[in-house]
Design brief:
The chain is 18% helix and 25% strand. By secondary structure, the chain is an alpha+beta fold. The protein has a domain at 410-456 and 626-704. A hairpin with a 6-residue loop joins β20 (210-215) and β21 (222-227). The radius of gyration is 40 Å and the shape is globular. It catalyses: S-ubiquitinyl-[E2 ubiquitin-conjugating enzyme]-L-cysteine + [acceptor protein]-L-lysine = [E2 ubiquitin-conjugating enzyme]-L-cysteine + N(6)-ubiquitinyl-[acceptor protein]-L-lysine.
C-alpha cells in the first residue's frame, strides 16, 4: 500500500488524520458502520462480522463477533448500525428475519445482547434514533416496520406500509418523531412514531423500487432517494406535497446514498450492479460527478462518511472483500477529463454548438442570443477551496438555424403512416411503398422499391399482365427471370436486305415506332412479365421501359446468298451523318411531312435502331435472390449514411430473412433504435409499435415486453394480487369494483396508484372535479391527470 497524500482535520478537541488505504476481508461485506468517535468501523456480511480500528497507516482488526463452532443465521447480516450515542451498542439485520443487538461492553466472547424475531422475512434495514438511546427501528421484506424499545423484550409498535417490501428506513435528523421509509413499489412514506396506524404522507418517488433514502444533516426538509430507475432525487418535504427539487441521473441502479458532511450540495452514491465506482455528486450539476472513487473491483455494498463533521474521509465495503478508506483529495475528477465542447442537432435541423468562449469570441459574425446572456455567476465564500469547486469553464453557445424548406418534415410523417411493412405479399408491399414515395416526390426511393421487387419476387407467383399494361415496347422483365433464348438468331436483323424497313422489322398491331424525341424521365411502377431487351441509338422513356409488352415478335429472316466477304464492309461512322441527297429532295418536296416524321424517314434501320443478339446465354436464366444481397446491403448503408434511416429500416422489415443475415446485428439495432426514436419524437406511437413488432432484430422485439408489468393491489385488503384473475386470494373480493357506484367494472378501469381504489373512468373523473379525496373514503388525496 503506497503512501498517498495525507490530511488532518480538526474536529473540536479531536483530530482525524490518515491516508487512502485498504485491507482485505475474509468474505464480501454487505454493510458497514462507523462509531461515534470515528476510530472504529464494523463490517457485516453473510460470513463476516468484525470490528476494525482506524489507525493512521492501516486497518487493524479489533474484534470478531462471529463466535461459536456453528454460528447461527443471526450472524448472517444484511445491515449493521452503530449507535451514535452509545459507543458499545450495535444492531444488525439478519437474513432470517431477526433483529439482533450487540453490547461490546460484555466481558464474555459472545457480545449478543437482545434478539427480536418478530419479522417473518429478511430484515433489510435497521436504524437507531439519532438522540434516543433505546429506540431502534427496522424494515423488513414482509412489508412491516417495527419500533423496538431496547429495555423491553418485544416491539412497542408496528407500522404496515401496505406494500410487499421495505427497503430502507431513516429517522429524521431534525424532527424527533418522524421517520421515512422507502418501498419496492416506488413509494416513499413519512410516519410519526406516535401514530402507527397510518402514515402521515406518501408519494411516488421512482418508477421502480426505491432502494435507499437519507435525510440531509443540515437542511431539515431535504430527503434524498435512490432507486432502480438509476436516479437520485432530492425532495423538499416542507411543502404540503413533496416537491422534487433536484434529480441526478446515474448509469446504474442506486443502492446507497449518503449526504456529505459540511457540504450542503454534495452526496455520495454507489450502485447495486454493473458499476463498481463510488460517486460524489453536486446536485446543482447533475450531469457529471463531482468526484469519483474507482478503487473497488466489484460492486460497492456499503458507504459511510467517517465522521459526521468531516467531509474528507469516506469508508466503503464491497463484494470484492475489501474495506477502503478514501481520502477526498485522492479522488479523480471527471470534469477535468470532460470535453468542454458540445454539439447537438435539433428536431428540425438546427445545430447547436457550445465551446470555450475563448475559441468563439473572435467570431465577428456571431450574433447575440435573443434571450440574453444565460450564464450566471458562481457565488463563493470569502476564500473558496479550489478542490471543493467544479472546474469553471466559461462556454459560449452558437445556434445555426436551418432554412425553412429543410425544416419541412411532413414527408417523413406521411411516409411512416402510409408505408406498408407487412400483411401482404412482397410484391404488393414494394409496389405500394413505391407509389407512396412517388406521390411524395421522392423518385429515387420509389425506384429503389421497384428494383427490390424486381430482384426478389418469385417468378412462379407472377400474375399475368393485363391489357392495360401493353405499351410501346411491351413489359419490363423481372431481373431474376431473364430469358436469353429469345435473344438469339431469331431476333437478328437481316442487314443485307435493310433497304426496306417494312421487310425487316415487324411490330405487333398494338405497338408503334419509337419516337426519337423523349420527354423528361419519370419514375413509374414496373409491370410484370418477360420481354427482350433492346439497345440502340434510340433513347427510351422510363414509361417505355416499365410498360414493355410481354414478347416482341421475332423478325422474320429472309433468304439470301452468302456473299464473297464474310463480313460486309462498314461505312465510316460520323458524329452527325448527313442525310442523303435524294432524301433531302423528297423531304423538301413533301408538304405533308412534319419535322419529326422527316427525321425518322431519312434514317436507315441500321442507323436508327440496333439490336444486340446473343446466340449463347452468358449466365443462368434465373438469378437467385442472394445474388443481389451485396448490392442491397450497400444500398441500405448508403441510405443510413445519408440520414434516411426510415428507408433502411423499412427495407429491412419488408425483405426480412432475405437480407437479415447480410447485415450484422449491431448495425441493425442501431438503425432500428434511431428510427424508433424519430417516430416517438413525432408521437407516431402506433407506427413505432409496429416497427418494434415486425423487427428482425431480437434486441428490438423485446422492447414491447419490458416495463409493462402491472402490479395490482386488492382495494379491500391492500395485498398484491396474483395474475390468475381479478378475485383476491386473501379476502375473496372482486378488485374491480367502482368506488363511486359500487358496481363491477367490466370495461375501462382507472385506479389510483397510491391507494389502489378506482372505478369507471367517467365516474372517477366526475368525482374528482368536485372532490380531492378518494371516493372510497380512505382519506387519500387522489389526482387524475
Amino acid at each position: 500500500m503506497e503512501k498517498m497524500s495525507r490530511v488532518t482535520t480538526a474536529l473540536g478537541s479531536s483530530a482525524i488524520s490518515g491516508r487512502t488505504m485498504f485491507c482485505h476481508l475474509d468474505a464480501p461485506a454487505n454493510a458497514i458502520s462507523v462509531c461515534r468517535d470515528a476510530t472504529q468501523v464494523v463490517v457485516a456480511g453473510r460470513n463476516i462480522f468484525k470490528i476494525y480500528g482506524l489507525e493512521e497507516e492501516q486497518f487493524v482488526e479489533k474484534l470478531n463477533l462471529r463466535v461459536g463452532r456453528k454460528p447461527s443465521l443471526n450472524f448472517s447480516c444484511a445491515d449493521v448500525m452503530w449507535h451514535q450515542m452509545e459507543e458499545n451498542l450495535l444492531a444488525t439485520a439478519a437474513t432470517n428475519g431477526a433483529v439482533v443487538t450487540w453490547n461490546l461492553g460484555k466481558p464474555s466472547r459472545n457480545k449478543q445482547d437482545q434478539l427480536f424475531t418478530e419479522h417473518k422475512r429478511t430484515v433489510n434495514k435497521v436504524c437507531f434514533h439519532p438522540t434516543e438511546v433505546y429506540m431502534l427501528l427496522s424494515g423488513s421484506q414482509d412489508g412491516y416496520m417495527k419500533c423496538f424499545d431496547l429495555r423491553k423484550k418485544e416491539s412497542v409498535s408496528t407500522f404496515s406500509g401496505q406494500s410487499e417490501s421495505v427497503r430502507d428506513v431513516q429517522f429524521s435528523m431534525k424532527d424527533y418523531f418522524t421517520f421515512a421509509a422507502s418501498f419496492e413499489n416506488g413509494n416513499v412514506q413519512l410516519w410519526d412514531i406516535r401514530r402507527p396506524d397510518r402514515y402521515e404522507r406518501m408519494f411516488t418517488a421512482h418508477t421502480g423500487p426505491v432502494f435507499c433514502c437519507d435525510w440531509h444533516p443540515d437542511d431539515r426538509g431535504w430527503l434524498a432517494t435512490g432507486g432502480r430507475d438509476k436516479m437520485v432525487k432530492v425532495w423538499d418535504m416542507t411543502t404540503n406535497r413533496a416537491k422534487e427539487i433536484y434529480c441526478v441521473q446515474t448509469i446504474a441502479s442506486v443502492a446507497r446514498v449518503k449526504w456529505r458532511p459540511e457540504r450542503k450540495w454534495h452526496l455520495a452514491t454507489c450502485s447495486m450492479m454493473v458499476d463498481h465506482n463510488i460517486y460524489v455528486w453536486d446536485v446543482r450539476r447533475p450531469f457529471i460527478p463531482f468526484a469519483t472513487f474507482e478503487e473497488h473491483k466489484d460492486v460497492t455494498t456499503g458507504i459511510v462518511w467517517r465522521h459526521q463533521h468531516d467531509p474528507y474521509f469516506l469508508l466503503s465495503g464491497s463484494k470484492d472483500s475489501t474495506l477502503y478508506q478514501h481520502m477526498f483529495k485522492d479522488a479523480s475528477r471527471p470534469v477535468d477529463r470532460a470535453n468542454p465542447e458540445g454539439l447537438c442537432f435539433g428536431l428540425f435541423g438546427d445545430l447547436a454548438f457550445a465551446a470555450k468562449e475563448s475559441l468563439i469570441s473572435g467570431d465577428s459574425n456571431r450574433k447575440p442570443y435573443p434571450g440574453g446572456d444565460r450564464r450566471y455567476p458562481i457565488f463563493f465564500f470569502k476564500k473558496p477551496d479550489l478542490t471543493e469547486q467544479f472546474a469553471h469553464v466559461s462556454s459560449a453557445l452558437s445556434v445555426f438555424e436551418s432554412s425553412l424548406e429543410s425544416r419541412h418534415m411532413d414527408w417523413f410523417v406521411k411516409t411512416a403512416r402510409l408505408y406498408l411493412l407487412g400483411g401482404k405479399p412482397f410484391a404488393e408491399l414494394c409496389d405500394h411503398n413505391a407509389k407512396v414515395a412517388k406521390e411524395l416526390n421522392r423518385p429515387q426511393v420509389s425506384t429503389t422499391w421497384t428494383m427490390l421487387r424486381l430482384m426478389f419476387s418469385d417468378p412462379a407467383n407472377l400474375s399475368t399482365p393485363g391489357p392495360n399494361n401493353i405499351s410501346k415496347l411491351g413489359n419490363l422483365p423481372l431481373m431474376n427471370s431473364f430469358s436469353m433464348k429469345e435473344m438469339g438468331t431469331e431476333s437478328r436483323l437481316d442487314r443485307s436486305k435493310g433497304e426496306s424497313r417494312q421487310d425487316n422489322i415487324h411490330l405487333e398491331p398494338g405497338n408503334s415506332l419509337i419516337n426519337s424525341n423523349n420527354d423528361e424521365n419519370e419514375e413509374t411502377e414496373g409491370s410484370e412479365g418477360q420481354a427482350e431487351y433492346m439497345f440502340g441509338d434510340a433513347e427510351l422513356d422510363d414509361d417505355d421501359l416499365y410498360s414493355m409488352e410481354h414478347e416482341i415478335q421475332a423478325v422474320e429472316e429472309q433468304e439470301y446468298t452468302l456473299p464473297q466477304e464474310a463480313f460486309p464492309l462498314r461505312h465510316e461512322i460520323m458524329d452527325n451523318p448527313s442525310v442523303p441527297e435524294h432524301l433531302q429532295q423528297d423531304k423538301a418536296d413533301s408538304p405533308h411531312a412534319s419535322g419529326n416524321e422527316a427525321e425518322v424517314m431519312c434514317l436507315t434501320p441500321i442507323e436508327s435502331l440496333s439490336l444486340i443478339a446473343i446466340s449463347q446465354p452468358l449466365f443462368s436464366p434465373h438469378l437467385p435472390a442472394h445474388f443481389f444481397c451485396p448490392v442491397v446491403r450497400e444500398m441500405l448503408s448508403h441510405y443510413a449514411e445519408q440520414g434516411d434511416v426510415q428507408m433502411a429500416v423499412s427495407v429491412l422489415i419488408v425483405l426480412g430473412d432475405r437480407i437479415r443475415k447480410e447485415i450484422d446485428d449491431l448495425t441493425q439495432e442501431h438503425w432500428y433504435m434511431s428510427y424508433i426514436d424519430l417516430l416517438q419524437r413525432f408521437e407516431l406511437w402506433n407506427v413505432s409499435n409496429e416497427v418494434i413488432k415486425l423487427s428482425t432484430c431480437s434486441a428490438i422485439t423485446c422492447l414491447n415486453q419490458t416495463s409493462t408489468t402491472l402490479h395490482v393491489n386488492c382495494s379491500n385488503c391492500k395485498r398484491p394480487m396474483s395474475n390468475r384473475g381479478w378475485i383476491c386470494d386473501r379476502c375473496h373480493q372482486c378488485a374491480s369494483v367502482c368506488a363511486v357506484c359500487h358496481h363491477v367494472v367490466k370495461g375501462l378501469f382507472v385506479w389510483c396508484q397510491g391507494c389502489s381504489h378506482g372505478g369507471h373512468l367517467e365516474h372517477v373523473m366526475n368525482w374528482l372535479k368536485s372532490n380531492s379525496h378518494c371516493p372510497a373514503g380512505c382519506g387519500h388525496l387522489c389526482e387524475y391527470t
